[in-house]
């Protein structure tokens, strides 16, 4: 499974998955129509939420230039699964999302892979 994180720029990854009979994960919008049966999921990000949050912090006098991380706990990312994927996969992803929210699975906030 290849997870592209480049919105429309990453469509080549999705098209290659279709061509090779593999799976891909899309990002930002539902990209499953580009390769029905090959897009296992897509991650939807609410960029408006991040913008609103920054503006609200500035308005309230609480804005800092620090790096901000938005994730499942903040209500940001949503993992959507196309209807054609098996119910077992949908249930497994929901379970993993819950484990992330509960802190059982820790998502790193760095790209350091050492």
Task: Describe what you observe in this structure.
- The protein is an alpha/beta fold and 114 residues long.
- The chain contains 3 helices and 4 strands, in the order E-H-E-E-H-E-H.
- The chain has a 4-stranded mixed β-sheet with strand order 1-2-3-4, sandwiched between helices.
- Helix 1 links the parallel strand 1 and strand 2.
- The chain is globular and about 50 Å long.
- The mean pLDDT is 88.
Itemize the secondary structure elements and their pairings.
Elements: E1 2-3, H1 11-20, E2 24-27, E3 39-44, H2 47-59, E4 78-80, H3 87-101
Parallel strand pairs: 1-2, 2-3
Antiparallel strand pairs: 3-4
Count of alpha/pi helices: 3
Question: Any idea what the shape is?
Answer: globular
Using the CA coordinates, give the radius of gyration: 16 Å
Largest sheet: 4 strands, mixed
How confident overall, as mean pLDDT? 88
Distance between the termini: 22 Å
User: How many strands?
Assistant: 4
Strand order of the largest sheet: 1-2-3-4
Name the helix and strand elements from N-terminus to C-terminus, one letter apiece. EHEEHEH
Could you estimate the helical fraction of the residues in percent? 25-40%
**Coarse structural class:** alpha/beta
The parts where pLDDT drops under 50 for at least 5 residues are: none
Strand content: 5-15%
């Amino acid at each position: 499974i290849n997870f592209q994180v480049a919105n429309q720029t990453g469509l080549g990854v999705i098209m290659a998955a279709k061509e090779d009979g593999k799976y891909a994960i899309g990002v930002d919008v539902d990209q499953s129509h580009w390769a029905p049966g090959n897009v296992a999921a897509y991650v939807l990000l609410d960029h408006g939420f991040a913008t609103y949050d920054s503006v609200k912090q500035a308005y309230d006098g609480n804005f800092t230039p620090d790096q901000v991380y938005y994730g499942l706990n903040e209500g940001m990312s949503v993992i959507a699964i196309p209807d054609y994927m098996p119910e077992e996969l949908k249930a497994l992803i929901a379970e993993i999302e819950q484990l992330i929210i509960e802190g059982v699975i820790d998502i790193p906030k760095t790209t350091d892979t050492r």
